[in-house]
Amino acid sequence: MYNKLRSVINPDQWLAQREKWLREASEKPISQSSIGQRVIRYFSSQLHGIQQNAECLLVGLSERNDLNRYRDYVRAIVETIQDWYKLLQAGAWNDLSASLRAFEFDRLPTVKAPDREQWKNRVNQLKNSINQRILQSILILSEDQLRRDVQHSLQATSQITSLLRQFNETYSQAKHESGCFDFADLEYFTLELLKEPGSDPPAPSRIALEYQNQFRHVLVDEYQDINPLQDAILSLLGGKNNHFVVGDVKQSIYRFRQADPQRFIQRYNFYQTNPNSYGRVIHLQRNFRSRKPLLEILNVFFHSLMTEDVAEINYDDSHHFVPGANYYSEDSGLFAGQPVELHIAEEVSPGNRSDLDRDEREALIAALRVRQLLGMEEHPRAQVVNKDGTTRPIEPSDIVILLRVMKIKAERFASILRRCGIPVQADSTSGFFKATEVGDVLSVLQLLVNRRNDLALAAFLRSPMSGWTTVEDLLARIRLTYPSSRCPCFHQAYNRYGREKEDELSQLIRSTNQMLDRWRTAAQYEPVSEVIRLVLQDTAYLSFISGLPDGPQRVANVEEILRRARQFESFQRPTLARFLEFLKEIEDENDLGMPTAAGAASNAVRIMSIHKSKGLEFPVVILPDLSKKHNLRDTQEFLLFDDSVGIAARRVDLDKEIHYPTLAITLAANELRRKLIAEELRVLYVALTRAKEHLILIGTSNPDCWDRWFDHWHAHHGPLPADDILQGSSMLDWIGPAAVLTQRDRPGSIENRVYTSDEIDRLMDSLFQKTRANRIDPIVFDLKPLNNPPDISDTARNVISRLEYRYPYPAARNQSAVTSVTQLTKSEKLAPGGKSVTRTGILSFSAPLRFSQSVSKTDLSSTDLGSINHTVLERLHFSRIDDADSLETELDRLVAHRFLTRDELPYVDRPGILWWIGSDLGQRLRHASDVRRELSITFTRTIDTDSCQLVRGRLDVVIVEPDGLTIIDYKTDNVNEQTVRQRAEFYREQINTYRSALADISGQPVKEAYLVFLKVRKIIRM
């Protein structure tokens, strides 16, 4: 609700208008209130749609003499519906309500036709439609009851409206106090700047007028996805007569982001119906993407499906595609015959023991067609067109599988395709944490954090990382030796066996513990990513999983954990335990998708969502999951929120413990359903229009579905009735009838095939058998040459080339691509240009040094203390500090602006900062006219003749003066008067590196460089 309100120009006015409509509906007769009139129109369309279906049924019954009794029965229903329609149109709500309450269907007569069950089912479907949509609706309630229900629900809607306003005020205050704002604020602040205060509708402010004078034209792309607030901003920026907007309302699929296609439609209709207006419509119909036969079919499809009643537009001649791309004739080896295929898998009955679910069965059909297109199933390899008009053999990357919902489904499809030997790249959104290899790595990390974690210990021992074989037998042996009565926890039994026994198993336990201890020690000192690298190196786990089925994807999953670990290391105080908590929060909030395997993006079948495919094109598009039910949950809630009524609530009767719909919620549910169905149609349009040459549609239904569609629709002419489209529960309910009409008008344009459950089971056995490992000659596993080696295939050549590959820059293998100045100069490695100044690494001191008084008795690390004081020195306004009081004022400012927290204030080295500001160099910095603080620099360091390394650094202070630059570097090291000079020498190479790099980058000489040691109040010139 809040997001919707943020997309309108005046939320308070918007809510007030809709609250007025609700009060009107609670006081006036239904036929006289705004909501009531729209409800009457809604039920009129419902009755009209039911009557159309009944009359269509009558046409079929009239052709059969043996079905006369059914015909008379349906004709009586039609006459009853007509009577109800007349009462509704006359505003006689109570009369209609009484008629509906008294109505009962007569008993269905008996007929002796051979196909009577089929016709009986169709008559019963008509009766069920009347029951659900009319007899069980609010039409059976009296006007007085409906007005009381609205009056009662007003209490709830008023409270929610008040809550929305309170939330907005509280949230806005919280953002203000935090000094931040969200994206919607950017839009609102922009609107406030551009409109004259108090104007309604918004009039341009002085700022807006300046922009209007500045811009000759305002060009807007994707205009179909605009919302009212954004439209107002654009209008204020450009006035009324200089907008050039481009869009296709048939591709408006971002309603969940508050896109309002009505903005586009209103502007379109205004220009179309007002030829003398300042605007005009330019139809961009020429399609330079797809081949002509495919476009002709899509035109018939959407002419049948898209009408103003359901899709908010009529797919008339102005919307029809006009082919603009040049394709060679079919004789050149391109796709021939039907440009569209419709494959139907038989619905699996509840008692069926099939190993595959619906998604996987459809994925098998997709895999079969992909293999056939790629020439892997004794089919000639398909040809596709290059951009220059030439043809070439199809590649896996020319094929895309589009899904309405990616979560779970994407990985199911990808898994089946991989098992069928097809390279695939899935833009999945889930499944990462369920991957076996991810669980293996996480179990090790959990065990390193808590060695008493029984589940992690068992998971590690069972994984290939432990190196154990016959694990179940060994674990059972441990537990039988030390049962739960003696050792309640498994880790106790495991460790006792290792200490007290002397056999092969105890030796295995001790060696495993030694390995775990080594990893635990590393976890105390090394970054998380280095610990994971050590585990993977010691266990050769990446090599192991790379040889498993789907090896590249498994390796990519483990490398994703490494990537996340490196990302986590940029946080404050990263530890292994916190890293696991970090991953757990990600998993709990929303599972991650599988990362892209190395090399997969180059030539693989893509699996992606329809929304992400918008704007892309592929030679072959496969669209499965057509039987997925439309998500209409938004229309079934107790509270609904829509433009038509604002907030609508169901009536709750606490005494009877029941709830039922009101006038408002009926209208809101209808409007929401209509908008959802319209968007689903547009999503289908986007999916089908991604194809350049060939389109493969896959759904699941009963085997007789094609016959049912044909019997019902073959005699129909014109677009499908709006009621049938609105009542369709899936995309297949639209595609099936549209395909029948297309086949009738263009015979042979669509290839349709139905797969029975037995056929799919045989298909599964066939495809999986072709890629099963047991088909490999046994001598291959002994690493012996084949007696009759086959010809080297393209796949084999690719593998051989990868195995024989030699990296052309061997000197760079032991160097990271990016390093820091600190890493470069504080290590024992040689620095550029010769030996480092300090060859012994970081200096060690025999006794710990005492903290200064300002930071004594702290539990923070020296790194944390240094970070706090560096932040203070970076953010302080030195010119405002004269004494301790003014320093405290500045520190309070840093806290108020959230550069510092209250908890960090005690650790600020106040005496050191005051000393520094009072020093000669501090005073020079204080009065300098050009000072750069926390200056980031990046430069390259040559490794050899063929490669270099990127080096990054950050300078605390650089003073820019006419005769050169001065570098100042703050140090918070724990040194004393005796050791400070040694420590300064240790930093000399770092300062020299900064000096050289800064001079090269700026082109100015670095005349001075200083180290400022705050603890000992010492400034050393380098």
Structure write-up:
The structure is a single chain. With 1022 residues, the protein is of the alpha/beta class. The protein is built from 39 helices and 23 strands. A seven-stranded parallel sheet has the order 9-10-8-11-16-5-17, with helices on both faces. Strands 18, 19, 20, 21, 22 and 23 form a six-stranded mixed sheet that branches. Strand 14 (651-653) and strand 15 form a beta hairpin. Helix 2 packs antiparallel against helix 7, helix 3 (34-62) packs antiparallel against helix 4 (68-89) and helix 14 packs across helix 30 (757-770). The longest helix has 36 residues, at 143-178. It is globular, with a radius of gyration of 37 Å. Residues 828-858 have low confidence and may be disordered.
Which key features would you list for this structure?
1022 residues; alpha/beta; 7-stranded parallel beta sheet; 6-stranded mixed beta sheet
Principal-axes shape call: globular
Structural class: alpha/beta
Mean pLDDT: 84
Share of β-strand residues? 5-15%
Q: What's the total helix number?
A: 39
Helix fraction bin: 40-55%
Radius of gyration: 37 Å
DSSP E strands, number: 23
**Main sheet characteristics:** 7 strands, parallel
Low-confidence stretches: 828-858
Largest sheet, spatial ordering of strands:
9-10-8-11-16-5-17
Distance between the termini: 63 Å
